[in-house]
Amino acid sequence: MVRLTCLLVMGLLSAVLSTTQAIESCCRDLGCFSSDAPFFHPLYRPVISVPKCSLLDTFQLHLNTRLNPIQTQVLDPYQPSTFGSTNLDLSKATAILIHGFTDLWDWPWWSDMVAAILRDADVNVIRLNWDEATVLPFIQSVADTRLAGAFVAKFINILKDEHGYNPQRIHIISHSLGVHAAAYAGERVDKVGRITGLDPGRLYFENTEPAVRLDPTDATVVDNIITDGENFPGFALGSLQQMGHISIYVNGGSRQPGCALGQIATIFGTQTAYNSTTYDASAIWRMTEYQNKACSHWRAFFLFLESIGREKSSSLAFECGSYNEFLAGNCFSNASARTSVGYYPNLDLVSGNVMRNFYSAATDRIPFSTMGFKLNFRLQSKTENSNSQAKRGTLTARIVGTLGATEKLTITSEIIDLTPGAEVSLYFHSKHQTLGAIQAVTLEWDAVPNPFLPLDWMRKHYIYLAGDLQLTTDHGSLIRLRPSRAQILENEDLTATVGV
């Protein structure tokens, strides 16, 4: 009923708006922008709005390099002769960062990204200041993304046409509404090397024509990390729609752990460990506000940020038909269809304009990266020598390596049946850490007695293993582990070690 009412209201609104005459704005040499189709759609984009040309005077490009890692230098595409007085080095690759709605180019989380990129490589890092275009009303900000993208494209084309700079060396990193500004820049350049969309904005972009939003034609590589999408009529700031060659759905692409509805974040909150040396009081207040109102939407940003640096470890994402298949471990074994989440994707996965879906897991706090494992074992069949019986319960495990061990991990997401003779296959994750060579797995199970059999609560419960355990890592290593015994009493550890 609610869905029907929403559709009726939207249909009525669309009918009214569709009779409204399109408007147009022409902004200097950047061309004219019309509100007509495809930038108007009666259902998905029922707005009449065009860029505000006067904002061009407020746009700036701020350069950092290893020669000026803190203080920025302004690059003005309308005064390209001034480029030579900056540290812009056209022998090096370039990253362009574009923030989203209500965000600011110089907030410290963007400075953190600049610092991380410069630690990783000697490149040019440029941030777009379009702050005055990313404020209310949102409808106007949506229109102004087109102007911001055209402004960035003008700069890139000057480098290309007047200085012979190859735009394949440019990587545009963008968040939220800024993702579509990056798309508009990419469509005007032949051809940007890579656009990364961090939780692409949903409202007035989802289900629109490719010309209106990010799509695989906007760069040679378009990769997206999706953390805050919802299907209609659910509310979300990000979009579940495929918009790139590689779309990574973290924890299914919505409702991130640690971002429960109504959860109040503080400066000691779970998502972001604020850097007190760079985050002043206003920045802490703003990011805390973001965590309270847009926690899942920001998760993509921080996942990407923590992945920058060759010494860093990031989660792996696996190509899969659905999130449920991923959770079942059905997509774990295909080594040719997996990619790192974040700064270093598997670019071999990109082919033409083919769009592919990948799934990964993340924890509820920094560091978000995880390691995936698949544990396989068989239960003994009932025989004269084995009293193996059908049981129900949950399992936990601890993985021990030469350099460390995981915490005790819940490896069943729900109560499972443990049937004699059954093959059990469990897929689970742990926070990323250095384990070294895996030596052992400690397994424990907790029985769930039958509520209709009162005596079942009073007796001891056992399961019986048949043979070795097999542990597969997300990098494809298969490890056989020999259990110390076949019989496992509930709530009692069993250790299985690497066989000699």
Automatic annotation (TrEMBL):
Every Lipase domain range: 24-368
Subcellular location: Secreted
Protein family according to the UniProt entry: Belongs to the AB hydrolase superfamily. Lipase family.
Protein name, per record: Inactive pancreatic lipase-related protein 1
GO cellular component: extracellular space
GO molecular function terms attached to this record: carboxylic ester hydrolase activity; lipase activity; metal ion binding
Protein residues bound to Ca(2+): R213, D215, D218
Active site location: S176 (nucleophile), D199 (charge relay system), H297 (charge relay system)
